[in-house]
Amino acid sequence: MILYTNYVFADLVDLYRQKGIQEVKKYLDNELKNKLYWQKYFKNKNIKLGYYESKKYVILTEKIDKKISLFKVSSNEINLISKNKVIVGEKNGDKQIEGDLKTPEGVYDLTSKLTKLDSFYGPLALVTSYPNTYDKTLKKNGYGIWIHGRPLDKNKKRDEYTQGCIALDNLPLQKLDKNINVNKSVLLISNKNIKNVSNKDLSIILASIYKWRDAWKQSDIKTYISFYSKKFKRHDGMSLKRFKEYKERLFSRNEKKKIEFSNINVMPYPNSSNQNMYKIVMDEDYKTRTYKFLGKKELFIELLNGKVKILAEG
Fold it and tell me: Of 25, 61, 130, 291, which cross-links 145 as Cys (Cβ 3.0–4.6 Å)?
């Protein structure tokens, strides 16, 4: 936690001296739920493409302009590294089903790099995580969405479209590959120019994450469920009604919970429905007397009238 002035630091020392470390922790937890804290925190940071604590590279593909841009993330900046032309799916619009010849829109991880390929796909391919958790709740399907190159045989003609993948010339593809770490990269695919993330939106989101966590820790089912959209689906397809019933049974135990979040990444989520959406990925450390979980938490959210509504969770 970064404290802004010596005065604040002195206050916390006094609080620790008089009431102990738990009161200090309570104070800091309350600050994390305060959007004014986050507004001040983001004041001098470049957040136009989101907020990243563990992701280091943002790859942005804009389908209408047929361009791919690579950005490197540092503590206060998101810097453009390269920009190149691409070709995308033959059909316009967001991918819905296998074989529709469309390139998906959304946020995806790069899951692996392939090098032993048919020469038609160039020297390598970066495999994406399509369909992601949110896609699956919308019953989107298909597979094999890659960022790949062009035929190694120069005499082999390449159509100016793909079956849904993103393709670029081989030299820029190789440079892209050399400039990233696959495990620390995120791919944003947008139909057109992506809207810059605002300080206001990001502050609401981060403060809301900690309010949601607090309701979860306190087994406050009413407040906890208020963060979920009526359209919510869990990763396994569970509806909001069933999810609420499931959580009511768990919360009725009133167990003491440890819930810690770290390595938080908040990414704007391009979508064909024109919703103000974001994907949140973070490490979750969850522990009760009877259950432990240490792993990734995914949230797909919509900002609606200044409030966070969770659409999907994984």
Answer: 130
Say how far apart CA 296 and CA 107 lie, in whole Å.
16
Helix-then-strand count for the chain, H and E: 8, 14
Q: Alpha helix locations (H) across 147-263?
A: 170-178, 199-217, 221-225, 240-251
Predicted confidence at residue 186, as pLDDT, reads 98
Q: What is the pLDDT of residues 166-208, one digit of tens each?
A: 999 999 999 999 999 999 999 999 999 999 999 999 999 999 9
Options 1.10.10.350, 3.30.470.10, 3.10.450.50, 1.10.260.40; which CATH number does 28-45+197-313 get?
A: 3.10.450.50
| Start and end residues for every CATH 2.40.440.10 domain found in the chain | 51-190
3-class DSSP assignment, residue 221: helix
* CATH level 2 (architecture), domain 51-190: Beta Barrel (2.40)
Spell out the residues 6+ positions from residue 20 whose beta carbon is closer than 8 angstroms to its own: none
